[in-house]
């Protein structure tokens, strides 16, 4: 029998990924025992696929003593309120990124989890991604020499199921636009490669008529090490050739890192043809299983979590500094821990 029973909240597109690419692969360790959504049809449909109990009321689900953990796959503006409710009920929590829409809420979440002795983790995939983890190992081993600069990149066109419910493309509802939604992802990457960020200069823009708030942003990052880097976000172009997600440049060469194929390439003058493809495959779809396994094992006391709430809070600090900079027109410091 599984060691850990989870209630999943929010039965949208991300919930399907957690269920089908996560819980379905971990049946010996964790059971998707319950699902909750205010729309009964969605709750019943997902519950039926996993022999789970459907709920439409979160308080009722939290009152079930068999539920040990809660997986929150809800819109951004609900993360904090539902996480705090679950933590207060004594449940371990896995929350989708961003951890919250304000620093104050994120700090409350981290503090309450610590106070109650519960595991709060953020479902942030890049710390679990093989090419990104391998890239960090190569940097630490000196394969590209001393770091010079780093660039993260998320450019494309958001549509389909991600626009279905209307909240994601409305910053007034979601608590922020693309910078909030994707900024925590790519801040996580930048921090993996180059360490913590000290200050940010940013601009945001809106390019789409069907979007409320920022759908484009550019950031200049100054890291605590003195390194500078940049991040580019845009959901306004339909071109398919948009480049890799991360470029890390050192004195001896550079790394190109991506979730697609090839997913990790080392460029260095001493290599044949000046480059070596280290991973020539797309990232497998089991990253959600790695996230859920890590949270479960941490909740069971078997390991320290890879992506605890405190790390999600640090990513959010950078994003919020970027929003402050876009409003003020100045370089803004990242709030202190």
Summary?
The chain is α/β, with parallel strands linked by helices and 337 residues long. It is built from 10 helices and 15 strands. The chain has 2 domains: 142 residues, NAD(P)-binding Rossmann-like Domain (Rossmann fold), CATH 3.40.50; 171 residues, Dihydrodipicolinate Reductase, domain 2.
Textual characterization of the structure:
- This protein is an alpha/beta fold.
- It has 2 domains: 4-126 and 287-305, Rossmann fold (3-Layer(aba) Sandwich), CATH 3.40.50; 129-282 and 317-333, Dihydrodipicolinate Reductase, domain 2 (2-Layer Sandwich).
- It has helices spanning 13-21, 40-50, 58-62, 79-88, 103-116, 130-140, 171-174, 178-194, 287-299, 309-328, and strands at residues 4-9, 30-36, 53-55, 69-72, 92-96, 120-123, 147-155, 197-205, 216-223, 228-234, 246-250, 254-257, 264-267, 275-279, 332-333.
- The strands form 2 sheets. A 9-stranded mixed β-sheet has the order 14-13-12-11-7-10-9-8-15.
- The longest helix is centred in the C-terminal third of the chain and has 20 residues, at 309-328.
- The chain is globular and about 60 Å long.
- The mean pLDDT is 96.
């Amino acid at each position: 029998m599984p060691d850990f029973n989870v209630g999943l909240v929010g039965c949208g597109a991300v919930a399907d990924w957690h269920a089908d690419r996560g819980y379905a692969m971990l049946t010996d360790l964790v059971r998707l025992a319950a699902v909750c959504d205010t729309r009964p049809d969605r709750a019943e449909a997902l519950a039926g696929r996993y022999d789970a109990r459907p709920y439409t009321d979160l308080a009722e689900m939290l009152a079930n003593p068999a539920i040990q953990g809660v997986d929150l796959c809800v819109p951004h503006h609900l993360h904090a309120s539902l996480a705090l409710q679950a933590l207060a009920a004594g449940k371990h929590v896995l929350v989708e990124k961003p951890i919250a829409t304000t620093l104050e809420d994120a700090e409350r979440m981290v503090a309450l989890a610590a106070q109650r002795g519960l595991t709060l983790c953020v479902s942030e995939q890049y710390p679990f991604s093989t090419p990104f983890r391998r890239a960090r190992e190569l940097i630490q081993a000196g394969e590209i020499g001393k770091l010079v600069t780093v660039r993260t990149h998320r450019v494309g066109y958001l549509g389909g199921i991600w626009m279905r419910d209307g909240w994601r493309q409305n910053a007034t509802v979601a608590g922020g636009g693309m910078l909030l939604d994707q900024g925590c992802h790519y801040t996580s990457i930048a921090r993996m490669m180059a360490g913590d960020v000290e200050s940010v200069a940013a601009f945001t823009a809106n390019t789409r008529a069907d979007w409320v708030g920022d759908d484009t942003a550019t950031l200049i990052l100054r890291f605590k090490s003195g390194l500078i880097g940049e991040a580019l976000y845009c959901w306004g172009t339909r071109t398919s050739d948009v480049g890799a997600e991360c470029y890390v440049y050192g004195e001896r060469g550079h790394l190109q890192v991506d979730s697609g194929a090839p997913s990790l390439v080392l460029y260095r003058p001493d290599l044949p043809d000046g480059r070596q493809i280290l991973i020539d495959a797309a990232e497998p779809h089991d990253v959600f299983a790695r996230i859920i396994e890590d949270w479960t094992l941490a909740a069971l006391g078997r390991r320290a979590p890879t992506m605890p709430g405190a790390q999600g809070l640090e990513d959010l600090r950078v994003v919020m500094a970027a929003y402050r900079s876009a409003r003020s027109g100045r370089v803004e410091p990242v709030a202190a821990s």
